[in-house]
Design a protein that fits this description.
Blueprint (H helix, E strand, L loop, with lengths): L2 H19 L6 E10 L6 E11 L4 E8 L4 E8 L2 E11 L2 E13 L4 E10 L7 E9 L1
Antiparallel strand pairs: 1-2, 1-8, 2-3, 3-4, 4-5, 5-6, 6-7, 7-8
Length: 137
């Protein structure tokens, strides 16, 4: 027998069962938003899509990516704060670290806005402030 396949199958089944039975009500929400990067030096609009997983009333996590596909990040939030960790493609050969932190505000039931400070680990790209408006489904 191949014990490695059995072990992987057992772990996969355990993780799937844990995910299915972890809550009676799962709070997974797709989101779309319009981002305005570098609002202090002329706004450059872009759109993004993502998934937000509500952990409890105050905490959430998830991921998002811009529709150009050159930026992806994991996000974590608590009440009004938001932090992100991801990567950004500078050109075809260069991918760098991306760090974001800021605040988000719920405008309506499923509409939100956020302001974030974006730090990119590359000497040719300056840090900037991002403003975004989004909708959760």
């Amino acid at each position: 027998m191949n014990y490695k396949k059995i072990l992987i199958s057992t772990i996969s089944l355990f993780l799937l069962a844990s995910f299915v039975f972890m809550q009676d009500e799962r709070n997974v929400e797709p989101s779309i938003s319009i981002r305005y990067d570098d609002i202090l030096n002329g706004m450059s609009p872009a759109s993004s899509i993502g998934i937000i997983l509500g952990i409890d009333e105050d905490k959430y996590t998830g991921f998002d990516t811009n529709t150009a596909g050159d930026e992806i990040r994991l996000i974590m939030g608590w009440k009004w704060s938001i932090m992100g960790l991801g990567t950004k493609d500078i050109d075809d050969d260069t991918t760098v670290s991306l760090f974001t932190f800021g605040a988000t505000y719920s405008v309506l039931d499923n509409m939100f806005t956020s302001v974030e400070y974006v730090m990119i680990d590359h000497e040719t790209v300056n840090d900037y402030i991002r403003l975004s408006v989004g909708v959760k489904f």
